[in-house]
Amino acid sequence: IFSWELFINRDEYRHYGAIQRNNKELELIPLIDRGDQLRQNPENVQLAPSKWLGYVAYKIIPGGTYEGAPYYFLFGYDRYGAYRRRKIIDVLSFDGFGGATFGLPVFMTYNEENLLLPDRKRMILEYSASANVALKYEAETNRIIYENLVLTPMSEGDGPVNMPDGSYHALKFQAVDGKWHEVEKVFNHTYEKAPRDTTRAPVRLDILGRPIGGG
User: Distance (Å, rounded) from C-alpha 193 to C-alpha 205?
Assistant: First the structure.
């Protein structure tokens, strides 16, 4: 899978990509970014390559099988806009004719009211552009680890935004139903508030402009 992004303006990035088949002759499936048309419920739809969500894929792993056919997890990053970023777990599968599809209902995850999200076909973590959010595969435990996000006010921009709160969740494969189940609080430590960059104290200068106290 080849993918890359193109800066359009501070609130828009376009993505381009292709899937290269494992054939002797070069054969590509083009990926057409339609993310700007998928603002409503983008986690719940299956997409063809011609209606791709759009992101830079930075990792791919086998996910399992669904209805007898193998599927793969794609880890993606989308700069998205001036104040927000997104990380994505997409699901790539192929039909009997070799056609690619993005999105499968292989997740057993829950909302804040502890209600199952049965239609979830991919996971999207949207967060503040000032934050760093982990989304990675842990081979030792066969888990997908990701940071928990909480909604916080923004000091600038266009309203509240998600920030990591210092706790982590995981997706763990269960052979009983062949799905990836959410595991809460992988690590015990949490912060009472979302982490923020600490403000450096102003440097005091003497009359010659030198820092006082080695600051």
Answer: 34
Closest alpha carbon to 69 in 106, 38, 36: 106
Give the side-chain half-sphere CA count within 13 A for 150: 13
Interval 149-166: pLDDT, tens: 999 987 666 688 999 999
Place of tokens 């508030």: 193
Rounded to whole angstroms, how far apart are CA atoms 180 and 21? 27
Q: Give the confidence band of 206 by pLDDT, cuts at 50, 70, 90.
A: low
Closest C-alpha to 5, from 72, 52, 47? 52
Calculate ∠ Cα 143-147-151, nearest 5°: 145
Q: Is the pLDDT of residue 189 over 60?
A: no
